[in-house]
Each structure stands twice: as C-alpha cells, then as structure tokens.
Amino acid sequence: MRKVLLRFLFEDLWQWQSVGNELHVGMAWLILAWLLITFVSFVLLYRSTLNLKESAASAGFWLVIPIVLLAGAFFRPDIAIIHSGIPVFGYGFMMFVGFSTATWLASRRVLKIGQPPEVIWDMMMWALIPGLIGARVYYLVRHGSPTMARAHGMQKLIASVALWDGGIVFYGGVIGGIIGVTIFCLRRKINPLAMFDVLSPSLLIGEGFGRIGCFLYGCCYGKACERPWAVRFPPDSLTFEKLVENGVIGRDATETISLHPTQIYSSVAAFVFAGILAWFFRRRPFDGAVMCLTSILYPISRYVLETLRGDIDPGALGLKDAQMMSIGLMITGIIGMYYLSRHPKLTLASSEKPLPTTDRA
Questions:
Q1: Are 198 and 121 in contact, with CB atoms under 8 Å apart?
Q2: How far apart are CA 319 and CA 299, in angstroms?
Q3: CB within 10 Å: which end of the chain, N or C, has fewer?
Q4: Average pLDDT score over residue span 92-116
C-alpha cells in the first residue's frame, strides 16, 4: 500500500531513497526525465510534420514547466511546497494511467466504426468530466466526507473535489459518462450505440487501473481473510483508520488484520472482461451488443465481490447499493440485448465503413 507513490524534493536535487512508505526523488531526476520526453516528442512531431518551427514551439512550451519549478525554488524558497516536495499520489496516478490507456485503446478501436482516432480524444473530456462529477457526487451523497465535514470556506470546496484523496463510485461515473458521451455523439451526429460499443472495453480497462489505485490508497477493502493471499494495511492507510474507528483493531496496532484484497479481485475481473469485450467487439452482430454484454457481465462480478467487501454495510433487503444497481443494470443489459437484436434498423453498423488500418485493437 502506498498512498503516496513518490515525492519529488527540491532540497536534495539528486536524492533517491526510500523514507518510510514513500520514495523520495530529487527534482533533478524529474527534470531530466522531462527533458528526455520533450526531446523525443520534438523528434516525433518533426518527423510527422517536417515543420521545424512548429515542433520547436511545441517543445519550448513544455520546457517552460521545469524552468518555472526551478525558478520558484530559487527565488521563493519559503513556499511550503519547496519544503514538502511534490507528491505523486498512487490513487491519482492510477486514474491517470487508466484514463490514458483506455483512451488510446478506444482511439484504435474507433477506426472499426468509420471514425478517426481524433474523435475519441475530443470526446473523452465529455466522458471524463461528467463521469468524475457523477462518481464524486454519488460518493458524497451516499457516504459523505470526513475531510469535507471538518473543512470551512474554500477548504470545504477543495475537499469536495479532492479526487486524489479517493472517494468516487464506479456506477456514479458510468451514469455521468453516459450522459456526456450521448450529448457529444448527438452533437457530432455519431451513432451513440456504436460509440458505446467502442468505449465499453476501455471502460473496464479504466476500472482495472482504478481498483489498483484503490488498493494503494486503502479504500474498498475486504472482510477478514485467512487465505495465503490475504493482505494487511499499514497505519497510514484509510483501511487502518476505518478499522480503528470500527473497533476492529486498536490505535497502537502496527497493521490491520488479514483482509481479502477485494481491490485486486476487482482489477483482475475488469481486465479479463475488457479482453472478452475487445474480442467480442470485432464479432458483434449489431450496434449496442458490446454495451449490452458489458451491462450483463460486469454486474455479475460486482455483485459477488460486494459480498467480500468490508467497508460498506448492507442496506435495504440485506443488499448493498452496488448490488441493487448491479441487478438493475444486468436486467437492463438483457432487455437491451433482446430489443436491439429485434430492431436492426436502430443500428448503423452495416452502413459504416471501417477506416483502413493494419492494427487490431
């Protein structure tokens, strides 16, 4: 478990050592990596455009960031971040990796429905922002935020959007994302059913990386477990704090009791389903089929895994919110699969010609 994966420090520019549960890295390493990435990006951009001025301007723009960081450390050494360093949170980093990977894969897959990759990159903001809003609002409504409850004024507003501190719900993100993507497709006159087929495997790719972020942060933890693969969380984790609050362990404990790694279970299931959906996408009989299959497969694993989670108590009918939503989503997927198979006129797959590509995503 690493709430903070690493921390970039200004005081010792070439530092590289593990301190507690964090890896402390000197800022010089970050700047060196940034310069290398900028140079590679410049070369690739120049090779594709053969425009030296445009390529140099783009590289120069990205070089401004390390210059600003160094200037700030030199001229304003009293700024708090200069002493504390720049943390890279495990949860936020995994969200970034998941979003980037999911978007890249979708941009390759979208060629199969006759749309250029640029459409995906344009559309992802319509999926990401409403999705994050839906995921965060759902979490705050259902579970609240201790940090937000203690905050005042501007700090309360910051706490309400503190995604780097965890606290989002997958189903809330799906609802927000569906709304955003649908609006985008209608504006661009793109078949929404075909687009949701493209996005469905990527959705679960993002879920897979997101659950790894949950594991690093310590949320969504499991019940007690005595299996060989059980995990224990350290005192600086959310899991430890929750178990102390619930009286399961004492404040003086050095780690939690052995628990089911439900976050890893969820991550593995999401990646497996993403592979199945990517395979099915190339063989889908009609637009919307992949979306409906996602609505059938994912809820089954989610329902089962919820029985192993120890962070949320059951509600009405002895079921958790996610279990009730899983039942509803699975029923919707079955009905949708049947309905769309009976109404082929709603789909445009036969009229859309795939763009030429040698890749299979």
A1: no
A2: 14
A3: C
A4: 90
